[in-house]
């Protein structure tokens, strides 16, 4: 019997796109071990030297000129990638994409980033006969995600579906599945066991995340949080930002028994379970992971564009609040020290989550489409 093969294509412009691809791949195999999956960051795979250079340039632009990123995002908001752009991308970076697809022989291609989505769309116009599913990994629908060749769009919310239908895309090509998270986020771990595993104290705990690139908030508010270190346990997770980690480790302000500074870790699901509050940039993936855990979130410095839209969605739906002052820190750090209030708030979030989000839904939807 032929085993179904799913090829998931992403790009490294922010860690969330590839995380979503891996989450979907893991979810598919969790539900049906016979499904074969392959995740590829296409640009890096085809151009191992040039690809990472372009991603690094984008990373620097995001961190140093976020307003420019926002301007470009809004100017192109309603525009899909035109055929000339698709041709240029294919000729310069993606000339061997068809060979990769022919070699792997997938029954289905899922793209979690607009660029491979555009490249595969062009190949379909040239005769590629493989269904193309586009997993939009934010709570917005930028025009670059859209293409007539897309078989089905998998989207986070009914609002994103409406944004696509407003652009003339028929409803039967759109399915609201939520953004997939790794199966580790499907289940809750035992808190005392986690406290023992991570050598943490049984006290109110805040997890501060800088995303995969480790872009943290302004030094002033980072330092202000440490004023609570005698009563609040602080876990700073700075991802791959080794410079920020070394700087913080050498700073006396962060040298305290109730402060932990971590680099890249694969234990985020456990760290969310052991924490009472998440402080994070509003990337679509991290926010969805927080949603799946029912942890209250404070959002800082959204990148203009998609992160602003992510932020708006989660705030409007009561899953978080914008971190814009020390007063916000004081409010939430006091709340999580009140056991009844903290537990009740999290229960309310889990009830909302169950009404709006099922972490297995995206994987189940793709399995059904494979039948």
TrEMBL record:
Sequence ranges assigned to domain Diacylglycerol glucosyltransferase N-terminal in this UniProt record: 17-181
Main location: membrane
Locations listed in the record: Membrane
GO terms for MF: transferase activity
Source species, domain of life: Bacteria
SUPFAM superfamilies listed in its UniProt record: UDP-Glycosyltransferase/glycogen phosphorylase
Keyword Protein transport among UniProt keywords: no
Family as reported in the entry's similarity comment: Belongs to the glycosyltransferase 28 family.
Record's protein name: UDP-N-acetylglucosamine--LPS N-acetylglucosamine transferase
